[in-house]
Fold this protein.
Amino acid sequence: MNQKTNRTESRSVATAPHGCLSPEKLSAQLDGEYVFSPEEEQHLAECRRCSDYYRSCKILNEKLSAALDVDCPGNALERIRKSVADQTWKREKQQKRIIPFGKIVNVFLRTAATVLLVGCVSAILLRDTLTGEDILAFLSFSPETKQDKIVIYPPISNSSATLSVAPEPYKSFNKGGIDIRQTRPVAAGEMLPIEFMGRKQSEKPEMVALIQPQVKHVWLTASGMDPVTLEKDFREILNRLSIPLNHVKLSVTPEGTLRVNAEMNRYQLVLLVRSLAARGLQLVSGVQPQPEQKLFSGSGREISEYEAVLMPGGK
Amino acid sequence: MDSETKSYEERLIKEFKDGDHRRFDELVAAYTRKLYRFAYGLLGNHHDAEEVVQDAFVRAYNALDNFRGDSSFETWMYRITMNLARNKFHWNRRRGDGMTISLSEPPELHDGTEASGEIDLPDTSYSPDLLLEKVETRENILKGLESLPESLRETMVLRHVKDMPYEQIAAVLDCKIGTVKSRISRGRELLREFLLAEDGIQPRQHSSAE
């Protein structure tokens, strides 16, 4: 030990006045990382300055250790364990179950890409005989193309969260659809259908809403809902939507208002908004996404910053 | 850590790498309390500590296949937790949640140790009993910890959360033992000054000590 600490000691000894023991030596001795020589022992016994400092450090150490001797409150231990399991090996297990389906989609997409490529090459090779219109007609999706539905995991029978292959004119938005590994409906039974890539041109009963990169919402909570329950519920929703907690900042004010700053993709944002509405919260700002809106432009994977204030109803 | 626990841990990691990912749950159970205390010491509140520990485990899970065992699993986990807590601390501070008074960090020398030219033997004109009154509340101590420069705070918390030996602290922080020693000494001194200064007492400097 003496060898290990020689360098730092020599610096400190130089600054310790009147031949007193250096703070580093005193501190290391308290931690059992240094042993006093007999001369140093004697100095400590005789020098009030050193002995006072030594006692101060000892008190500080004891109190510091006591202050940091905390245990997980309530069921935090179990909560951490469960949350980690949900985000790691349990999730992996669930994903494994949908691999065959993923493979099918993969094969389908590869085949489609191959056909498209062959079509383009053929069109170029045969450009003397084909008109521009012929090529465009070949490349574009027919408005009547039957939409393929992909059920988002978990495959609950009445799940209404769907992905659709985009027809014109929304085809350009579709870069492969929503990343189904990152998104799950909170409770499919409560959900209205969500479509991010549009629908058939022939039926257009609803406006396509655009979600901005920054969304601010004000919610009124049901009267009597305490902030602790509210925050717990909110965390549960985040967890079920697989929104990483390190992208979310929650704070509760003394008045019981929950403030949220988060970053998530727009598909998750729609689900989050619907989940809050399903829990009886009332959205009082008109910014998209609204819980009842069904159709959004984009792929759903674009990131939005979400800022929300959840305040007790009536205030 | 005793050799039995260590070999049990190594077995869990091996089984994890062999594909039995469920074994990770046992590692979580073994380390949650320790890491929670550490994160709490660094962040000073339960909510953030819980969040950081959760994230640390998820990160460890994703990286465990590449864990080579150069350091112990425990050291590795402390390092991950520390980095996440550091991010969280800065995030909180950016958002104005912190009530921190930052003291300037001592400059670092090329050999990795910190310059200590200014380290004086602490002022002793105040008896330890005065300090004793100041450290009666946990809030005071946590506030004092929060006021320390990051490197000192992390070193102090590692030392006091589980009496970690200097050698292991050096491994977690990836620095030399001498650096740990001077950081702890400096940290204690600053903490003591902070607690006394709370009452408006200005500890005298070495130059004016006598």
